[in-house]
Structures are given as structure tokens and as C-alpha cells.
Amino acid sequence: MSFPEHLQHLICNDEPLAPYTWLRIGGPACYFAEPTTREELVDLVRAAHAAEIPIRVLGGGSNLLVRESGFPGLVLSLSAASLGEIRVEETQLTAGGGARLSHVVTMAVGKGLAGLGHLIGIPGTVGGALQGNASAGGSDIGQCTESVELLSLSGEISTRNRDELQFSYRHSDLGDSIVLSASFQLEAGDPIELTKRMQKLWIVRRSERPRDEPRVITPFIDPDGATASDLIEQAGMKGIRQGAVSLDPLRPKYLVASDGASSDDVLALIDIVRDKVSLQTGIDLQMNLKIW
């Protein structure tokens, strides 16, 4: 396909996707673009829709597995500064969908706004956090979401307010729409106390991550009333290996990829663990992983 002339300078053909994911696994995108403005993003989506080209949006890559065959469509990166702007007006914070969640959290806390600090240490973008209703410590991002501006995969822009949004545990009803921006209603607090609390959480969460293992993901969602780590340990799956991927022997909720790892290795290991946990505990572990 040939994109419209004013968009062609944005398109990269056969762009390797592995470097954009935490696992460093996967093949290329047929088309790849990093729009620098909202207008370019909308035009790219509309052009792809008109040509019946499938679209995916690349976030932080922390819960993404790309198959070796790659993605036969258009992959959009929202990493441009203009798509991740953060604004604060009194107790309301508005962020672009491409904004890093960590940046949003630290800005809110620095401004003395409570409501997002519990999300410190969760990787990815605001858009991804809303799609999956990121949660920690019993609270989720949906609880303070005031409105979300969306771009459908057909190129239509709409805004949904709080009473039009549905969030549940690790889930939202945003579907495949692209998050252009979101507004959060927060509460005024003491920035010093909020910062101390955030820093303590950050230290704890950093200490839980396997050391010296850069290619790490958490492929499972903690079910209600339990943790994936505990269930995996009960099933005797700590440290299990499949090909060049394994579960961390100390913190088995983490999947670690080594040199030579493939998407087939990852999927095979996940299937083995889910089957064994289901057999031993009766609980069906849900995946915290997008597969392209």
C-alpha cells in the first residue's frame, strides 16, 4: 500500500519490533510510524482504515509479545512529546495517551495531588494503563478518571465522561480505541508526605524485581484473593524453563527471557504453567500479555 503523500515521510517499512518490547522478541511491523502531532495520528489511522490495514498501538512494551512473523499492518508509536503532554489545573490533571505513567504519577505527587501515587513503578503509558485499568494496593486508575478522549480505529474522535466509562479489575470498556488524552480528578495533599509515600512504594517494588535481568515481564494477572507467585509456587513451577525462557526461581510471577528466546518458548511456558496451576488449585490464571 502507498500512504497519502503527506504521510509517507512518517512510514517505515518492515520495522523490527523486538527493540520496542521488554522481552526483545519478535519480528517486524509491515508499516511503522511515530506521528509527531495529533493531526498526523488521526490522518494515519484514517488512511489505514480506508485501506483495510490492521492497526496496533505501541505503548511501553512491558506486556507485549510479538511473534516472529511480526505484525502484518500498521504499528503506531505515541512517543512524541506532543502526544504525551501533561497539564495540571488545580486538582485536575490531564495527560496525553502517550505520556509515561511514571511521569504522570511523579508530576501529580510533586504538585501535591493524591490519587495516582499508588501506581508508581507500574510501567507503560497512560493509554495502556487505562485500557487495562492498572491497579496496585487495592486501587485502580479508573477510580479517579474523569474523562477520556478517544480515537476509534476508523478515525472518529469522541469523549467519554466518568458516567460513560466502565472499569473493573484489570479491565476497561475502551476496546480497541486509541486514548488521545485523559483527565483525572485528584485530591489536594501535602507534596512532601505524598513524595515520601511514593518513594517507599518505589523502593519496595524495585526490590521485588529480579536483579540483573533486563528482559523481564509479568505474564499473569493476580487473581482476587491470591497472587500469581503463590499459585505458581503451590503448583511446583518456580524456576521452570522452556527453551530460552524461564520463571524466576525466587519471584515466579516474573518471566525471564535469555538469548535465543522465541515467542513460541514464551507461549509454551505460559500454557504449561496455566495448566499446572489450574490442575493443582482450580484457578485459571489470566494473562497480562498482549500477543501480536
UniProtKB/TrEMBL annotation:
Q: Which domain of life is it from?
A: Bacteria
Q: Which PROSITE patterns match?
A: FAD_PCMH
Known catalytic reactions: UDP-N-acetyl-alpha-D-muramate + NADP(+) = UDP-N-acetyl-3-O-(1-carboxyvinyl)-alpha-D-glucosamine + NADPH + H(+)
Q: Where in the cell is it found?
A: Cytoplasm
Q: Which Gene Ontology cellular-component terms appear in the entry?
A: cytosol
Chief place where the protein resides: cytoplasm
Q: Which cofactor does it need?
A: FAD
User: Which residues of this protein are catalytic?
Assistant: 170
Entry's EC annotation: 1.3.1.98
Q: What class of enzyme is it?
A: oxidoreductase
Q: Which residues form the FAD-binding PCMH-type domain?
A: 24-189
Q: Which Pfam families match?
A: FAD_binding_4, MurB_C
Entry keyword Methyltransferase: no
Recite the UniProt keywords alphabetically.
Cell cycle, Cell division, Cell shape, Cell wall biogenesis/degradation, Cytoplasm, FAD, Flavoprotein, NADP, Oxidoreductase, Peptidoglycan synthesis
Q: State the family named in the UniProt similarity comment for this chain.
A: Belongs to the MurB family.
Q: Which NCBIfam families match?
A: murB (TIGR00179)
What PANTHER family does this protein's entry cite? UDP-N-ACETYLENOLPYRUVOYLGLUCOSAMINE REDUCTASE
Q: What is this protein called?
A: UDP-N-acetylenolpyruvoylglucosamine reductase
Q: Which organism is it from?
A: Rosistilla carotiformis
| The encoding gene | murB
